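User: I'll paste a sequence; please echo it back and then give the predicted structure.

Assistant: Echoing your sequence first, then the prediction.
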Amino acid sequence: MALPLLHSRAALAVVVAGGVALFAVGCAGPTAGPMGATYATSVKATWKDPRFHAAPMQRIFVVSLMKVEPGGRDAVEDAIVARLASAGVTGIASHTVMSQDAEKPGPTLAEAITAAKADGVLLVDVKAVGSYEPYTVGQTVTSLSPDTMASYDFLKRQNVYQPGDYKIAHIVSELYLPSMGRQVWVAATDSFDAANLARNLPDFTLKMVGAMAKDRMIAAAPKPS
Protein backbone atom coordinates (compact mmCIF):
# COMPACT_ATOMS: atom_id res chain seq x y z
CA MET A 1 0.00 0.00 0.00
CA ALA A 2 1.52 3.34 -1.01
CA LEU A 3 1.80 6.14 1.50
CA PRO A 4 -0.75 8.92 0.89
CA LEU A 5 0.47 12.12 -0.76
CA LEU A 6 -0.55 14.47 2.04
CA HIS A 7 1.23 17.81 2.16
CA SER A 8 0.36 18.89 5.71
CA ARG A 9 -0.71 17.45 9.04
CA ALA A 10 -3.93 19.41 8.62
CA ALA A 11 -4.68 17.11 5.70
CA LEU A 12 -4.33 14.13 8.03
CA ALA A 13 -7.02 15.62 10.24
CA VAL A 14 -9.30 16.09 7.25
CA VAL A 15 -8.93 12.44 6.32
CA VAL A 16 -9.85 11.36 9.84
CA ALA A 17 -12.76 13.80 10.13
CA GLY A 18 -14.18 12.32 6.95
CA GLY A 19 -14.25 8.92 8.63
CA VAL A 20 -11.64 7.45 6.28
CA ALA A 21 -8.70 5.53 7.71
CA LEU A 22 -5.35 5.99 5.99
CA PHE A 23 -4.42 2.38 6.69
CA ALA A 24 -7.49 0.31 7.56
CA VAL A 25 -7.30 -2.91 9.56
CA GLY A 26 -10.07 -4.93 11.15
CA CYS A 27 -10.37 -4.79 14.92
CA ALA A 28 -12.69 -6.10 17.54
CA GLY A 29 -14.87 -3.79 19.56
CA PRO A 30 -13.70 -2.46 22.92
CA THR A 31 -13.77 -4.78 25.89
CA ALA A 32 -14.13 -3.98 29.55
CA GLY A 33 -11.23 -4.09 31.96
CA PRO A 34 -11.00 -4.24 35.76
CA MET A 35 -12.91 -1.54 37.53
CA GLY A 36 -9.94 -0.72 39.73
CA ALA A 37 -7.74 0.30 36.78
CA THR A 38 -8.66 3.97 36.47
CA TYR A 39 -5.99 5.03 33.97
CA ALA A 40 -4.50 1.92 32.45
CA THR A 41 -3.88 0.19 29.14
CA SER A 42 -4.03 -3.51 28.35
CA VAL A 43 -2.61 -5.14 25.23
CA LYS A 44 -5.39 -7.26 23.72
CA ALA A 45 -3.54 -8.71 20.72
CA THR A 46 -0.56 -8.20 18.44
CA TRP A 47 0.23 -9.41 14.93
CA LYS A 48 3.57 -9.55 13.14
CA ASP A 49 4.02 -10.29 9.47
CA PRO A 50 5.69 -13.73 9.36
CA ARG A 51 7.61 -12.58 6.28
CA PHE A 52 9.30 -9.78 8.21
CA HIS A 53 12.81 -10.86 9.15
CA ALA A 54 14.66 -7.52 9.17
CA ALA A 55 16.73 -6.29 12.10
CA PRO A 56 14.90 -4.42 14.87
CA MET A 57 13.99 -0.88 13.85
CA GLN A 58 16.17 1.97 15.09
CA ARG A 59 14.42 4.99 13.55
CA ILE A 60 10.62 5.24 13.52
CA PHE A 61 8.48 8.00 12.01
CA VAL A 62 5.47 8.61 14.28
CA VAL A 63 2.05 9.74 13.06
CA SER A 64 -0.83 10.18 15.49
CA LEU A 65 -4.40 10.32 14.23
CA MET A 66 -5.75 10.60 17.76
CA LYS A 67 -5.58 13.71 19.89
CA VAL A 68 -5.66 14.76 23.51
CA GLU A 69 -6.66 17.90 25.31
CA PRO A 70 -4.52 19.86 25.83
CA GLY A 71 -1.88 19.26 23.19
CA GLY A 72 -3.77 17.65 20.33
CA ARG A 73 -2.02 15.11 18.11
CA ASP A 74 1.36 16.72 18.76
CA ALA A 75 1.22 15.69 22.42
CA VAL A 76 0.53 12.07 21.49
CA GLU A 77 3.43 11.97 19.03
CA ASP A 78 5.79 13.60 21.54
CA ALA A 79 4.84 11.06 24.23
CA ILE A 80 5.47 8.14 21.87
CA VAL A 81 8.80 9.61 20.73
CA ALA A 82 9.90 10.01 24.36
CA ARG A 83 8.96 6.40 25.15
CA LEU A 84 10.79 5.12 22.07
CA ALA A 85 13.86 7.09 23.19
CA SER A 86 13.76 5.26 26.54
CA ALA A 87 14.10 2.04 24.52
CA GLY A 88 17.05 3.38 22.54
CA VAL A 89 15.01 4.08 19.39
CA THR A 90 14.98 7.40 17.56
CA GLY A 91 11.45 8.61 16.97
CA ILE A 92 10.57 11.36 14.52
CA ALA A 93 7.28 13.10 15.27
CA SER A 94 5.42 14.05 12.10
CA HIS A 95 4.52 17.48 13.47
CA THR A 96 8.20 18.42 13.66
CA VAL A 97 8.83 17.89 9.94
CA MET A 98 5.46 18.47 8.27
CA SER A 99 3.55 21.69 7.71
CA GLN A 100 0.95 22.63 10.32
CA ASP A 101 -0.85 24.93 7.89
CA ALA A 102 -2.96 23.57 5.03
CA GLU A 103 -2.50 26.91 3.25
CA LYS A 104 1.29 26.49 3.33
CA PRO A 105 1.92 22.92 2.24
CA GLY A 106 5.26 21.38 2.97
CA PRO A 107 6.69 17.97 2.08
CA THR A 108 4.31 15.09 1.51
CA LEU A 109 4.10 12.37 4.13
CA ALA A 110 6.18 10.08 1.91
CA GLU A 111 8.79 12.80 1.37
CA ALA A 112 9.02 13.54 5.10
CA ILE A 113 9.48 9.86 5.91
CA THR A 114 12.21 9.50 3.28
CA ALA A 115 14.03 12.57 4.57
CA ALA A 116 13.88 11.19 8.11
CA LYS A 117 15.62 7.98 6.97
CA ALA A 118 13.09 6.01 9.00
CA ASP A 119 13.11 2.21 9.21
CA GLY A 120 9.37 2.18 9.86
CA VAL A 121 6.26 4.31 10.16
CA LEU A 122 4.13 4.02 13.31
CA LEU A 123 0.50 5.06 12.97
CA VAL A 124 -1.76 5.22 16.04
CA ASP A 125 -5.51 5.80 15.95
CA VAL A 126 -8.60 5.42 18.13
CA LYS A 127 -10.76 2.87 16.32
CA ALA A 128 -13.64 2.80 18.80
CA VAL A 129 -14.72 4.26 22.11
CA GLY A 130 -17.35 2.96 24.46
CA SER A 131 -18.92 3.16 27.90
CA TYR A 132 -18.56 0.35 30.44
CA GLU A 133 -21.88 0.21 32.30
CA PRO A 134 -21.93 -2.25 35.23
CA TYR A 135 -25.38 -1.07 36.37
CA THR A 136 -27.04 -2.60 33.32
CA VAL A 137 -27.75 -6.31 32.90
CA GLY A 138 -24.28 -7.82 32.83
CA GLN A 139 -21.28 -5.73 31.88
CA THR A 140 -21.77 -4.00 28.57
CA VAL A 141 -19.90 -1.66 26.30
CA THR A 142 -21.76 0.78 24.10
CA SER A 143 -19.67 0.99 20.95
CA LEU A 144 -19.41 4.34 19.21
CA SER A 145 -17.18 3.08 16.41
CA PRO A 146 -15.92 4.69 14.34
CA ASP A 147 -14.90 7.70 16.39
CA THR A 148 -14.36 9.96 13.40
CA MET A 149 -12.92 12.75 15.56
CA ALA A 150 -10.17 10.41 16.79
CA SER A 151 -10.66 11.88 20.24
CA TYR A 152 -11.00 10.43 23.72
CA ASP A 153 -13.24 13.36 24.66
CA PHE A 154 -16.20 12.31 22.51
CA LEU A 155 -18.09 10.55 25.29
CA LYS A 156 -17.34 13.29 27.78
CA ARG A 157 -18.97 15.84 25.48
CA GLN A 158 -22.01 13.56 25.18
CA ASN A 159 -22.45 13.58 28.98
CA VAL A 160 -22.39 9.77 29.08
CA TYR A 161 -21.12 9.45 32.62
CA GLN A 162 -22.89 7.91 35.58
CA PRO A 163 -21.52 6.61 38.89
CA GLY A 164 -19.70 3.34 38.22
CA ASP A 165 -19.15 4.09 34.53
CA TYR A 166 -15.81 4.37 32.86
CA LYS A 167 -14.86 4.93 29.28
CA ILE A 168 -12.81 2.61 27.08
CA ALA A 169 -10.83 3.48 23.96
CA HIS A 170 -9.76 0.77 21.55
CA ILE A 171 -6.50 1.98 19.98
CA VAL A 172 -4.79 0.33 17.04
CA SER A 173 -1.06 0.94 16.52
CA GLU A 174 0.40 -0.09 13.18
CA LEU A 175 3.95 -0.30 11.82
CA TYR A 176 4.65 0.02 8.11
CA LEU A 177 7.74 -0.31 5.98
CA PRO A 178 8.35 3.12 4.43
CA SER A 179 9.78 1.75 1.19
CA MET A 180 6.67 -0.23 0.21
CA GLY A 181 4.03 0.97 2.65
CA ARG A 182 3.57 -2.66 3.75
CA GLN A 183 2.06 -3.32 7.16
CA VAL A 184 4.38 -5.50 9.26
CA TRP A 185 3.03 -5.18 12.82
CA VAL A 186 -0.23 -4.31 14.59
CA ALA A 187 -1.14 -3.95 18.26
CA ALA A 188 -4.68 -3.63 19.60
CA THR A 189 -4.89 -2.03 23.03
CA ASP A 190 -7.69 -0.97 25.34
CA SER A 191 -7.22 2.17 27.42
CA PHE A 192 -9.47 3.38 30.17
CA ASP A 193 -10.63 5.74 31.57
CA ALA A 194 -10.97 7.11 28.04
CA ALA A 195 -12.50 10.37 29.24
CA ASN A 196 -8.95 11.59 29.89
CA LEU A 197 -6.34 10.31 27.44
CA ALA A 198 -3.75 12.85 28.57
CA ARG A 199 -3.55 11.04 31.92
CA ASN A 200 -3.45 7.68 30.15
CA LEU A 201 -0.60 8.48 27.76
CA PRO A 202 2.24 7.26 30.03
CA ASP A 203 0.74 3.79 30.45
CA PHE A 204 -0.43 3.57 26.83
CA THR A 205 3.02 4.39 25.45
CA LEU A 206 4.73 2.03 27.91
CA LYS A 207 2.49 -0.90 26.98
CA MET A 208 2.49 -0.21 23.23
CA VAL A 209 6.26 0.25 22.91
CA GLY A 210 6.75 -2.71 25.23
CA ALA A 211 4.71 -4.85 22.83
CA MET A 212 6.95 -3.69 19.99
CA ALA A 213 9.99 -4.91 21.93
CA LYS A 214 8.35 -8.21 22.82
CA ASP A 215 7.73 -8.88 19.12
CA ARG A 216 11.30 -7.80 18.26
CA MET A 217 10.22 -4.84 16.17
CA ILE A 218 12.67 -2.88 18.32
CA ALA A 219 15.66 -4.25 20.20
CA ALA A 220 15.02 -3.22 23.81
CA ALA A 221 12.11 -2.69 26.16
CA PRO A 222 11.14 0.86 27.15
CA LYS A 223 11.85 2.28 30.57
CA PRO A 224 8.99 3.37 32.84
CA SER A 225 8.53 7.11 33.30
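The helical segments are 9-17, 72-86, 109-116, 154-157, 197-214. The radius of gyration is 17 Å.
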